[in-house]
Amino acid sequence: MARINKVLVVGGGTAGWLVACYLARAMRSSDPSGIQVHLVEAENIGLLGVGEATFPSIRGTLAAIGLDERRFLDGAHATYKQGIDYRHWVRPPGVSGRGSFFHPFSLPSQRPGGPELLPYWLLGEAPSGLSFAEAVTMQSRVVEHARAPKRPQDPDYQGPLNHAYHFDAACFARVLAEHGTQTLGVHRHVATVERAELDERGAIARLITTELGPMTADLYVDCTGLRSHLAGGAMQSPFLSRADVLFADRAMAMQVPYDRPDAPIPSYTIATAQEAGWTWDIGLQQRRGVGYVYSSRHTDDARAEQVLRGYLGNAAEGLTPLRIRFETGYRPEHWRHNCVAVGLAGGFVEPLESTGIALVELGAYLLTHALPADLDDLPRIARHYNTMMVARYERIIDFIKLHYCLSQRRDTGFWRDNTAASSIPQTLQDKLALWRYRPPHRLDFVGDLEMFLVASWQYVLYGMEFHTDLTPMRRTYTQAAEARREFATIQQVAARALDDLPDHRALVERMVHEHRARAGRAHAVA
Ligand code: FAD
Question: Domains in the chain, ordered, with CATH?
């Protein structure tokens, strides 16, 4: 039996360092003399530098690699994220009616034995004027009042409200690199991979680097970003475009200073619909990260820059945007022979709902738990890995498309084209047909293959004013009085939570301060 003894990760962005840390931590705890993890990164090829918003799964991943939360917050300039505020997605500005909605990370409240609240909200039993998210969780109120999702005394990565983080991508990679090399035993090499030499079966025999000559391993992880140097290059694994469904293929990003040092930091991403896409607006500790994601079929770069500058106003003065090209799609064979692509090298779904890093986490998890494998088993393991990844991509694409195809905006070609049936996957059309008569249920989904739970579908569907007609079924919903009491309780609990949860900026500053004080003490003792 030939075991995998050495893994070489190529690329030192978020994907490369997350995979290296995850693998190294798992290998250390299971077998200290086990698989060696090496990472090679080019000094002269930068990271993408965007990818600042995450998904709640990141908490489990950071806890699993043993990174202290305060150290992470300080090093990555991170803040908390409790959801996404979708502005002008339902209708454009100036048209009467609610144009916006909030997608919170916390699940709808459901008391054990109590009624599921969604049908009663649909039947008009919630206090009038409350959106679905406002009626069933306190998170909308909490973020409106600039409160954090946790208190300083809560354990690392835990708190009363579900959350993720915003961070500076380059700083995050640096924190992971320090943690990986200093604590987890990842071997770091600085070199540019020029090419891969293949053996007679088509597997990678060795990589040739400019600075360090040949490098070998039993398994190669391609984390070279959109270049996809190994998976797309040497292994020629084809890319399946899904640009027919999700049109955005360009981004323009700026790092924007706050207008004053104590400006409130929103603990949510602001995603504002624009004429040919949407802008993201993310609050970090020292600056905002703002960008416009757009479709080059529906606008041009000059107009896109005008839109981004228009969004930012004076704050954009003197700033030059970073320009990025991408395409929604993926390599159905992420894993071929002894090479597996993780991160942008394997694929990407446009950044709405921040699935890029979550897919990296998933890749790191599936890869790590497939090892230690017999080298002869790699083809079977690769097939399984690819099946798992393809299913996730397709489910994510349906969910992202939901945001576009339900919009009532018809003001530009971009929004009109997004509602064309030919651009909506059949799987999504089928679900929408069903949900006209009853709300989504968890059994409509294939369990753990879904990145987004039924609650997220419900928040987006009803935030976008999707119509589910429950009136013919009204008589079957017999717990209206209980549901009304439950709606009232949620509002009372939300009011109390505002006293209990700290201000978001104050919490972040306190956590950073505590980390520095601890690090200073450790330094003094040493
Ligand atoms: P990169 O960051 O590009 O890193 C590539 C690494 O490979 C670098 O270290 C480089 O030096 C190295 N490299 C390249 N070639 C070689 C070579 N030949 N030899 C040696 N080293 C090499 N995801 C989210 O989760 N949330 C978001 O909000 C989000 N926003 C995004 C917005 C946009 C516009 C885009 C395009 C993506 C966004 N993503 C987001 C995706 C996210 O950016 C990526 O998933 C994440 O940054 C991982 O990138 P990566 O590590 O795969 O690639």
Answer: 6-80+166-241+328-395 (3.50.50.60)
